[in-house]
Amino acid sequence: MSEVPVGLVFPGQGTQRQGMGEPWRDTPSWTLVARMSEAVGEDLEHLLLRTSTERLRRTDLAQLAVFTVSSLAHAEAERRGLLEPGPVACAGHSLGEYTALACAGVLTPLDAAALVAARGRAMRAAADARPGAMYALVMAPFEEVAELTRQVRESVGNAWVANVNAPGQTVVSGSPEAMAAIAERSRSIGAKALALQTGGAFHSPYMAPAVEELSVALKGVTFAGGRFPVVANVDAQAYTGDGDWAALTVRQLTSPVLWERCVGTLTGPLGCRRIVEIGPGRTLAGLIRRIAPDVELWSVDCPAALDALPGLRP
């Protein structure tokens, strides 16, 4: 068994782009695409190979695309035996939590895909009904961003912290007017405000209408105990068979993603000394370098990266 305890992490929406499935097209794991297409009622092969980057900005399509590519990467790593005898825990950022649940065996891959499809449709509908915006505030401490957000909520309204990603990176979410006010005042706390290309005010009360639709989809899904713990976004706690994942995933729609704390749980109580990001892009690796700079990091964003990945076997 590996002497290095390994944790797996999975990215969320924002890493999608045209042709993102092409690197995986010739791998044995590509057979998953047809099965997942049937489960979600969407032509995922077309989505991953030919859909434009602009169209992939649509919330429901973006989430399906990122989830599917992350699932392909994970399946290929497992097929090659690179994840044996197994990680000690995993986590996913927002959408990535569903990939993590499938990775740990809490959900089947097809059930996870169906939930991702339902979640994406519900969030898109909520955003269409009540337009919102999101900004990343970088280079400022979380406490100052939280205080600025509170002040804007009191003076303008509808502004919330959506993601606590890493030291010096906090994402805020809310009405376009409130987000514009935060961006305008961000310099007062030494922050730089970056508009995110999202379809709405995610992880805020603006997503409350999506709760009912996701709850309906969850009624037809069984959550298993899982092979190892998954760290939840909403409270950064590690859950195995004792997790009420139906409730946790619903809460995630309107609650902030506590990613910095999730990584702290992986690298602290769970003891992960090697973190492997599996899926498109290397966003999470960049955040983890700032959260836990002493942890060994690897990214699997293409088949070639698998060739370099140190197996968990000695």
Shape: globular
- Give helix % range: 40-55%
Number of helices: 12
Strand content: 5-15%
Q: What is the C-alpha radius of gyration, as a whole number of Å?
A: 19 Å
How many independent structural domains?
2
Give your account of this protein's structure.
- Its EC number is 2.3.1.39.
- Residues 9-314 form the Malonyl-CoA:ACP transacylase (MAT) domain.
- One of its GO terms (molecular function) is [acyl-carrier-protein] S-malonyltransferase activity.
- Belongs to the fabD family.
- The protein is an alpha/beta fold and 314 residues long.
- The chain has 2 domains: 6-128 and 206-308, 3-Layer(aba) Sandwich (Malonyl-Coenzyme A Acyl Carrier Protein, domain 2); 133-198, Malonyl-CoA ACP transacylase, ACP-binding (Alpha-Beta Plaits), CATH 3.30.70.
- Helices cover 43% and strands 15% of the residues.
- It has 12 helices and 10 strands.
- A 6-stranded mixed beta sheet has the order 8-7-2-1-9-10, with helices on both faces. Strands 4-5-3-6 form a 4-stranded antiparallel beta sheet.
- A hairpin with a 2-residue loop joins strand 4 and strand 5 (169-174).
- The longest helix is centred in the N-terminal third of the chain and has 21 residues, at 59-79.
- The chain starts with 5 loop residues before the first strand and ends in a 6-residue tail after the last helix.
